[in-house]
Amino acid sequence: MKLSYIEKEVKIKTNIHEQYRHLIVQLQEHNYITYQHSIRVGNLLSLLGLRLGFSLKKTETLYIIGILHDIGKIHVPNRILNKSGKLTLNEWNELQLHPEYGIKLLKNIPLPSEVLSAIAAHHENLDGSGYPSGLTGDDIPYFAKMTRVVDSYDAMTYSRPYRKEGMSDEHAIIELKRGIGTFYEKEILDGFCEIIKENGKTT
């Protein structure tokens, strides 16, 4: 008998490794908004993995990527993370270092290489306009492309210090589809949009 999406998700969530649990606690204490965002991204990435037909092991890897993708923001000052106005150039440059900070925090933890490569590249865009390395197309790890989609959706649909209210799911899907081929890969985005239409936001 095959496990349902929900049953698989529960199994995935119960296997959070103790070696990085302390980092998640640090993130929660440093910036609760980022912590909540990371948990939601983990939830949605695991669902997306299941939708795209990945094994339970690969889907668990995606959940780990989701909850750790912004772990480097532990080292980004809250005056930047919580700023309600536009970031200065120096502040933006500091924020862009969070993937690098994340890899440094995780380098001594035995994690799959897919986790580290996805975290390092989760702000890369298909057209090379992303950061930190300006990767393009197939040079971007597939799990990083998945994270880019889910991360963007969550940022669009939940309130942030610089925006009181998030977009509706419908508006966010329209905005995401405008980025197909530029920011996002069509196959991934199509699968993700199906999940959102069926399930809506995760809590």
Protein architecture, described:
This protein is mostly helical and 203 residues long. It has one domain: Hypothetical protein af1432 (Orthogonal Bundle). 61% of the residues lie in helices and 0% in strands. The chain is built from eleven helices and no strands. The chain has helices at 5-13, 18-30, 32-51, 56-68, 78-81, 89-95, 98-106, 113-120, 142-157, 169-178, 186-199. Helix 2 packs across helix 3 and helix 9 (142-157) packs across helix 10. The model has no long low-confidence stretch (mean pLDDT 90).
Name a few traits of the molecule.
0% strand, mainly alpha, Hypothetical protein af1432
What's the layout of helices and strands?
Layout: H1 5-13, H2 18-30, H3 32-51, H4 56-68, H5 78-81, H6 89-95, H7 98-106, H8 113-120, H9 142-157, H10 169-178, H11 186-199
Helix pairs in contact: 2-3, 3-4, 3-9, 4-8, 8-9, 9-10, 10-11
